[in-house]
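Continuing the batch. This is chain 6 of the set; chains 1 through 5 are on the previous pages. Same settings as before, nothing changed between runs. Recording input and output for traceability.
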Amino acid sequence: MRVMSVTIQRGEGNRAGDRAEGPVRPLDAQSVREAYRRWAGVYDSVFGWVSRPARMRAVAAINALAAERILEVGVGTGLALPHYAAAKRVTGIDLSPEMLAVAERRVRAGLAATVEGLFEMDAEATSFEESSFDAAVAMFVASVVPNPRRLMAEMQRVVRPGGTILLVNHFLGPPGLRRGIERAMAPFSRLLGWHPDFAMESVLSPAQIAAARIEPCPPLGLFTLVTLPRDGA
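Output for chain 6:
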């Protein structure tokens, strides 16, 4: 297992259409780094339990694919890493060195033998060659990155034709009490490190939504698993 730092490649700013139906208060890369520097030491105990059902469903979906080379975008503390099938070859990337350090300890403890590498890297502009992976999965990441559409474009670039792209995320709820709570939490996005008011249309185009398999996940449909053929991305 190797951990390698790379020069983080930042985007050039918003492009037209990058944030269709986007969150009210967009994040920036520095806000994300600062938030996850604070969360790194307690992330597993604070968020691990609530995100576990959706995370495990995503890993099960990956394990069911014939895909061997897997990119986990936003690998964080590596909570998913011990659960990939032995035949998988997983590369993880994250913007937070503090979160990656926890993932590295998990791998070195022998809990994740399928990992080929962990890298500090911007999910919107990775250094991987085109078609480097059979599948890519982003768990709880789409509502964190500054430009979700660029995230999707980059995942499409690095996944081979015929491959699979998966997202697990919290999306803005329907009109009602839940949406009201999410909107009320939106001013705290930078402190949280994610967008409570994040709409699916922020990351997926109407055509992508139509092509995707969309599955609510427990608890209470708080998270959603989206599975999209690379050629439909």
